[in-house]
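can u do me a favor
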């Protein structure tokens, strides 16, 4: 069980007939209550732009967790760009090897990815450890950004600004010329 505490009585008996006093040792069979929370910096990114996923892993104890691994394999809706793990995140397997996560400790990872034109876009992180977890309901966290699609334009692909309003057209045979505003899709820059 997770919160079992027990005593172990050890008696040292030496080979020549000498027995020392008994020593009580406290043995703790603890659990590591791991949890993970996943966030994204932009819930409606432009296709072709980058998003940053933040993964926060925590251990509510009472025991440390070792090893602790978070799996966050990017779905095909994203292309991996970089991360801030210092080498402990493997973008091919999706494994982030935290190592020992002490009781009460947290660890954080940021993954930068390019948004592809097709998905899926749901990105899930799952934390695991070697100790029993008394609450497994918070070991998984997902986010699902909704990318803004590309539209074909005369000079390439542009994203149409949904907030742009067209002017009121007059009646009759008058011809009015007006600009169409869009975005380049690479960083939200208006064209």
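np, heres the sequence
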């Amino acid at each position: 069980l997770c919160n079992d505490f027990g005593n172990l009585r050890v008696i040292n008996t030496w080979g020549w007939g000498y027995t020392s006093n008994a020593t009580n040792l406290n043995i703790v069979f603890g659990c590591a209550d791991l949890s993970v929370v996943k966030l994204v910096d932009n819930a409606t990114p432009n296709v072709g732009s980058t998003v940053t996923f933040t993964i926060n892993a925590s251990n509510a104890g009472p025991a440390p967790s070792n090893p602790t691994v978070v799996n966050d394999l990017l779905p095909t809706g994203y292309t991996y760009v970089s991360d801030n793990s210092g080498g402990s995140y493997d973008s091919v397997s999706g494994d982030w090897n935290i190592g020992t996560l002490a009781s009460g400790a947290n660890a954080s990872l940021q993954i930068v990815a390019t948004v592809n034109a097709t998905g899926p876009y749901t990105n899930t992180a799952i934390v695991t450890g070697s100790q029993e977890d008394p609450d497994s309901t918070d070991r998984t966290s997902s986010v699902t950004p909704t990318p803004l699609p590309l539209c074909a334009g005369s000079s390439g692909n542009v994203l149409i600004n949904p907030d742009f309003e067209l002017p009121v057209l007059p009646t009759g045979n008058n011809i009015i010329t007006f600009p169409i505003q869009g975005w380049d899709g690479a960083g939200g820059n208006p064209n």
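The two ends are 62 Å apart (CA to CA). hope that helps!!
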